[in-house]
Give the backbone structure.
Amino acid sequence: MTELPSSSNIEKVNTGTAEFEELVSDDRLTSDAATTKQSATINAFTHSSQLEDSTGVPAVRRKRKWWLRINWMLLLPTILWIIGWYLYTYPGVAWEESFRRWWNPKPQSFGYSWSSPQRELIRTIQYLTTFWFFYLGASIGSFFNVVAGRWPVGKGIVFGGSKCPYCANRLRFIHNTPIIGWLWCKGRCAFCHLPIATRYLWMEVAIGSIFTLLMFRELITGGANLPHWRLDSFVGFENIVFSPKWVLITAYLQHSVLFATLVMLISSSTSGLRFPWSGWFIFVICISCPKLIELRIEFVRWTDGLPIQQSFPIPHFSAASTVLAGLLIGGLVGTVTAKLLPPRVESHSRTHWCQAAWMLGAVLGWQAVVAISVSAWLLTYLMWLPFRRHVRAFSIVALATLLVVGVVHHMFWREIVSMIGL
């Protein structure tokens, strides 16, 4: 039978409710803070009433089963990570060899062969390198989570540690760890146990996946997707770890952070926030600076595709002109396509669309931003019917379409440039 709460517990609830009503009447709490205070008060007194029986004596908690005390949200990904390492290190060698024979039946001799211990060691290094790049992207995504949530509302991003938005408790180190912190807390605050938004998790996973994808396409292949880049004969994981090419790594980081900022804009749109133009210009300048310093990462010049061929006495003028042309044409194309988006797209998402076009033009060039913006704009109209009744969802889908088209274009950038004849 369900026991009735004791009179002492009823008095506690009445006292807490009276204090809450007094605070609200004094206008010392905002609506959000009042709701949070009320929830915390009710949860606290409900919890205290559960710990006492009808006589007011604290009841003994029942021990939960051992499988309920395990944090499965953290344990399962760890087990899958270990299983993935085993499959890649041991059976993966035979699977790759079978795939190579099916892809190219003609036998090839590479002049070397690894023995069993060396092969497992090399495969382990490759697996850990992949995980390191993924976690690097997740760490940058964790920082961009802070930027997407604070900068649009006028808060600083340099000073002040991360706090819970409900109870304002400062988070510990384990709570701020990318991906692991969210899984460790089971998607709830460690102090007030209120739910944490899932956008923190998916944004870190998305940016980590972008870093991993570009690592395989741009670093492992020695820049096979970059137009006008001389390909090296020796590529692979070993070339990254033991003989790194810093120019290629700089280009890889520039392109990875570029697409990470687009994910940040999607996160701001998810919360209904508009990213400020002043902060966005800071991002554009910081991400475009490597092109002005290292001229070898200027893969497409602004004169490519035009009937003019202009030579500059100082090479840095060419890089600056490429960035400036990308900004101007990217801003123009972004503004026009943002205005022509379906009417169900929210205004802040149109602003983010235009900001994304500015960034794409400054980093990839005006040729790339024209192809990406127009293609994404056409695909957005194809997705209008399924999401026409959901304004926020369709606004997010429109920005996600621009991101996906940009990533796919970057994967085949070299082939597209060769096909067009730039």
